[in-house]
Amino acid sequence: MTEGKETAAKAVGAAADAAGNWSRAGRHAGIAGAAIGVVAAGAAAGVALERMTVGRGMRRRARLALDAAGPYGTLRGTPGTVIAEDGTALYYEIDEAGGAAGHASGEAPKKRSGGSGTAGQGAYRKRLRAALGRRSPELTVVFSHGYCLSQDAWHFQRAALRGTVRTVHWDQRSHGRSARGLAQLDGSEPVTIDLLGRDLKAVLDAAAPEGPIVLVGHSMGGMTVMALADQFPEYVAERVAGVALIGTSAGRLSEVAFGLPALGVKAFHRLAPGVLKALGAQSEMVERGRRATADLFAGIVKRYSFGTPEDVDPGVARFGERLIEATPIDVVAEFYPAFAEHDKTEALVAYDRVPALVLAGEKDLITPADHSRAIAELLPTAELVCLPGAGHLVMLERPDEVNEQLVSLVERACATARSSRSARA
């Protein structure tokens, strides 16, 4: 009994020390540092329980095993690169219709709560082939990923559409396989959502120069899609046949609480950019800290990525963790201020005449479901879907439901594209 108490005490102490390291990193910024510490401490409580029963070496071996065995993020297409307005190389991949269909690397483990991500793929293909038809203009679905992710975050959706519909997947600047933003490296221009919208336009011009388009954006990717409409409304009117805005927001992100205590929310929003900038300036030290506190980092990722983390397959949870940890802290700091300035409410009108899907997880702490409801109010013909128990990475947590909704959207977009072509004829 005494030994068990000592083990528990050591576990709690170790987790608290890890949380303290993150809090001390932001201490010079006062309350914001404390708020970051609160986030870390919340995750540390769960980490402590795990440490009571599982040794550090075993946990590390488990992470390595999941990395080696998990097929997630392995789907690849025809690569391409386009140069953005500031010279940044943006990487994209194209999966052509009629190309390689989904295979073992596109499959997930058996269902725990959110599904396998491959349920009904045969039925999806039949429905999509019927919707596309032989006489329809070739439609392209373009996926834009979120903050601290990469194109691989769409793994299950890519597998579901692969070989049936032409798709484009791209990495936002400074993310994934795209190059670091040159304008940010030389200090000539900060990251803005408008800049990301222009990046998307460059990708579209290179990878989908003709034919109808369905735009799919998650989180920051959804904001990017809104910025495209804001700056290129004529292009949207001419080319876009459908839009999906998943786990995203049209603005007012400075009001999001992130699960923090009420007293700390305003201070966090006011001071967090400075804390992140300071951490970004010490990126090597911070990256070492992330590796040293891998268990704590994993706990934070689970808290903010999944609405019901205990029901998420461990391989999928580890995949989400890998996507996020691949983003350097200086890139995290570089992008963060852009969200406070983001307001594309008025730009949404550009999408009010095409089929639209607005989807969110009810337990999303990053872009709460109420933000999706606000978007849907501005797009009265949109299909609003809020999934109970799902969090921010809803496309990984609940892939079957997301895939079903995307296939339905593509069906509606095909009908819209045919109608538009007939009207022009």
Which keywords apply here?
8 strands, single chain
Fold and architecture overview:
The protein is α/β, with parallel strands linked by helices. Helices cover 53% and strands 11% of the residues. An eight-stranded mixed sheet has the order 1-2-4-3-5-6-7-8, with helices on both faces. α15 links the parallel β7 and β8. α2 crosses α10, α2 crosses α12 and α10 crosses α14. It is globular. The chain starts with a helix and ends with a helix. It comes from Streptomyces celluloflavus. GO terms for molecular function: hydrolase activity. This is Alpha/beta fold hydrolase. Keywords: Hydrolase, Membrane, Oxidoreductase, Peroxidase, Transmembrane, Transmembrane helix.
Number of strands: 8
Number of helices: 17
Uncertain residue segments? 7-55, 102-111
Largest sheet: 8 strands, mixed
What proportion of the residues form beta strands (DSSP E)?
5-15%
The secondary-structure element order is HHHEEHEHEHHEHHEHHHHHEHEHH
The mean pLDDT is 80
- The gyration radius over C-alpha positions equals 22 Å
Q: What percent of residues adopt helix (DSSP H or I)?
A: 40-55%
Structural class: alpha/beta
Q: Kindly report how far apart the N and C termini lie.
A: 82 Å
Molecular shape: globular
Major β-sheet strand ordering: 1-2-4-3-5-6-7-8
